[in-house]
Write a structure and sequence with these properties.
By secondary structure, the protein is mostly beta strands. It is 0% helix and 37% strand. The strands form six sheets. The protein has a four-stranded mixed sheet with strand order 7-12-10-9, with no helix packed on it. Strands 2-3-5 form a three-stranded antiparallel sheet, with no helix packed on it. The termini are far apart. The relative contact order is 0.15.
Length: 201
């Protein structure tokens, strides 16, 4: 007869779920409601609570060439209802392809796996920066008599790692001196110049 909702006192819709309720499906129930000309039959609805989004990020790390990898750590963003890492059933695993023998450079720290009842995990990579190791190069002291040619100038290295040797350097440093066979008796400096390598300063 052209009636609409104004012809009734509407039922009340409610559910046992609230903001703290875990992921799942819950009844929306109707109670009460009256109408002069209608008998009300109520049907439940459903409230579906989906997982919240939780972002897991591998923290950036630094180490020096030749060192073991540091412990990898993860930060989280998106917890609700006072939750913390204890709400994660299985934390993601952080890993990298780099190890103690990997050369200087920047390498991804990747996250894999991880589960939580109430959260969908989004993972972000971090980075592992491997810095150059310090290599000390010292010319060896030499002795000769006045008027003679200089002896072969040699170098001593301190700081090689991973079994590296002088042969592994990209460019080997050189030793030189201003002294020659005409230089009078005394002490002359032997200096080191040049030399470079991806893994050593």
């Amino acid at each position: 007869n052209g009636d609409d909702e104004s012809a009734i006192t509407a039922p009340t819709a409610s559910t046992t779920a609230d903001a703290t309720t875990a992921v799942g499906t819950y009844d929306i129930t109707l109670s009460g409601g009256t109408a002069d000309n209608y008998s009300l039959i109520t049907n439940n609805g459903s409230l579906t609570i989906g997982k919240a989004t939780l972002t897991a990020t591998a923290e950036d790390k630094f180490k020096t060439y030749g060192e073991e990898n540091p412990a990898f750590t993860i930060t989280y963003s998106g917890f609700v209802n006072g939750d913390d890492e204890s709400a994660i059933l299985t934390p993601p695993t952080a890993s990298t392809t780099a190890d103690a023998t990997t050369g200087a450079g920047i390498y991804d720290i990747t996250l894999s796996g991880g589960t939580a009842n109430n959260y969908s995990l989004i993972t972000n990579n971090g980075s592992l920066t491997i810095g150059k190791a310090t290599l000390t190069v010292t010319p060896d002291d030499q002795t000769r008599a006045v008027g003679q040619e200089n002896p072969e100038l040699t170098l001593t290295y301190e700081g090689f790692v991973n079994g590296d040797t002088e042969a592994d350097l990209d460019v080997t440093p050189t030793a030189s001196t201003t002294a020659n066979n005409a230089t009078p008796a005394g002490t002359a400096l032997i200096t080191v110049g040049g030399g470079s390598d991806n893994n050593y300063d």
